[in-house]
């Protein structure tokens, strides 16, 4: 990865620092229910404030069509203040007189959150006039929102083109972890890709088979591959119309000398519900009236062996229907094994995507992985080999 500018190169003392953060947090009855994204940006906010910069936070919230009180960031400002342990001022617009007055009132070390950037159509259009209005409010720009870096919006990409720009500490950590994951990894590299649908991850699979030494395919996706190879999958979730795509990916892997690891057994049940009666069958003996809901113990052993062989692991997507016990066992076992290898210093483990983060938290091992990305779409696009506009704009 080309070098990118970080806070180490920024002189923030006495400066107005526009900091793009991800505060698109879950809310219920006006209260933040999960503060993970707030906690991730606190180091950058604190560092700039402690060095005497005026911190001006830019963020989006939801998908409003114009100004909408239900999508206001005001309650989020209160949550940021609580976690930061100091006041966070709020301006009820991100441009114009209200924003300018709030910025002009800041002292060195103060923190201000501006209203939802998406209240203005110019944000998602990356409109030059809107970028210019935002830029009036700052002397420097810091992007600490990797999760929004795949969008070429005004506050994620446009500002970085008109102000001196730097990666915040969370962005920096994410980029360094991703470089270790695929761009300059220790080999062998193993990827685990799971989830329900092949259709949402075709680009991802086609990119990974060229870059990794072994690719583990699990979840509902694996059923599509098993079907493509001519085996019965009963009533299992699958995209049978993508059989040719699955075979093409297998052929691409063969040409790239990438081993494809598919389940050899599956935990099956008549219905998808918690505690459903289940039985494990070989992958060539799945009953016609049952569905595969998890990988079996022999498959877990194969995944664990692949992890043992790996120096680097990249993980996106669960191996089974982990949300409902007992169909979480395969994912939990593999996650705990990867975490143990990481703790022993034998594995660099990078994971990301919403379901993946939930699965690792469910297994109690998210803290034990080298890096867990909460970025979702940006993480997926990076895995697909796509350039991210918000990152490209920060390159030195």
From TrEMBL:
GO BP annotation list: gluconeogenesis; glycolytic process
Entry-linked InterPro entries: Phosphoglycerate_kinase, Phosphoglycerate_kinase_CS, Phosphoglycerate_kinase_N, Phosphoglycerate_kinase_sf
Subcellular location: Cytoplasm
Binding residue positions for ATP: 201, 323, 353-356
Residues reported in the UniProt entry to bind (2R)-3-phosphoglycerate: 37, 118, 151
PROSITE patterns in alphabetical order: PGLYCERATE_KINASE
Entry keywords, A to Z: ATP-binding, Cytoplasm, Glycolysis, Kinase, Nucleotide-binding, Transferase
Positions annotated to bind substrate: 22-24, 37, 60-63, 118, 151
Keyword Nucleotide-binding tagged: yes
Catalytic activity entry: (2R)-3-phosphoglycerate + ATP = (2R)-3-phospho-glyceroyl phosphate + ADP
Chief location of this protein within or outside the cell: cytoplasm
Subunit structure: Monomer.
Family listed: Belongs to the phosphoglycerate kinase family.
The protein, known as: Phosphoglycerate kinase
Gene that encodes it: pgk
């Amino acid at each position: 990865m080309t070098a990118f500018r970080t806070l180490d190169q920024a002189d923030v003392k006495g400066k107005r620092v526009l900091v793009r953060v991800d505060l698109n947090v879950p809310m219920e009855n006006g209260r933040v229910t999960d503060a993970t994204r707030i906690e991730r940006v606190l180091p950058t906010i604190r560092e700039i404030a402690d060095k005497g910069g005026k911190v001006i936070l830019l963020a989006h919230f939801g998908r409003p069509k114009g100004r909408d009180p239900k999508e206001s960031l005001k309650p989020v400002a209160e949550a940021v203040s609580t976690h930061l342990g100091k006041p966070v001022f709020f301006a009820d617009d991100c441009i114009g007189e209200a924003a300018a007055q709030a910025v002009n009132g800041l002292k060195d070390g103060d923190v201000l959150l501006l209203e939802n950037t998406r209240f203005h159509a110019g944000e998602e259009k990356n409109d030059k006039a809107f970028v210019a209005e935002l830029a009036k409010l700052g002397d420097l720009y810091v992007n600490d929102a990797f999760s929004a870096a795949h969008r070429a919006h005004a506050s994620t990409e446009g500002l970085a083109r008109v102000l001196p720009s730097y990666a915040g500490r969370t962005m920096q950590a994410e980029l360094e972890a991703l470089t270790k994951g695929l761009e300059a990894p220790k080999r062998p590299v193993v990827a685990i890709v799971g989830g329900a649908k092949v259709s949402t991850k075709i680009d991802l699979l086609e990119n990974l088979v060229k870059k990794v030494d072994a690719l583990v395919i699990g979840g509902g996706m694996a059923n599509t591959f098993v079907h493509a190879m001519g085996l019965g999958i009963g009533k299992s979730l699958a995209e049978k119309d993508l059989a040719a795509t699955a075979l093409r990916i297998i052929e691409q892997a063969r040409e790239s000398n990438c081993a494809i690891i598919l389940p050899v057994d599956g935990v099956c049940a008549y219905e998808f519900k918690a505690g459903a009666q289940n039985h494990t069958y070989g992958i060539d003996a799945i009953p016609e009236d049952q569905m595969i809901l998890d990988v079996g113990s022999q498959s877990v052993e194969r995944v664990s062996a692949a992890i043992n062989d790996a120096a680097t692991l990249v993980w996106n997507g669960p191996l089974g229907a982990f949300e409902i016990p007992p169909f979480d066992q395969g994912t939990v076992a593999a996650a705990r094994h990867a975490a143990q290898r990481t703790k022993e210093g034998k594995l660099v483990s990078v994971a990301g995507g919403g379901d993946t983060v939930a699965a690792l938290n469910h297994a109690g091992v998210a803290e034990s992985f080298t890096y867990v990305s909460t970025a979702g779409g940006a993480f997926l696009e990076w895995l697909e080999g796509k350039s991210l506009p918000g990152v490209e704009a920060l390159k030195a």
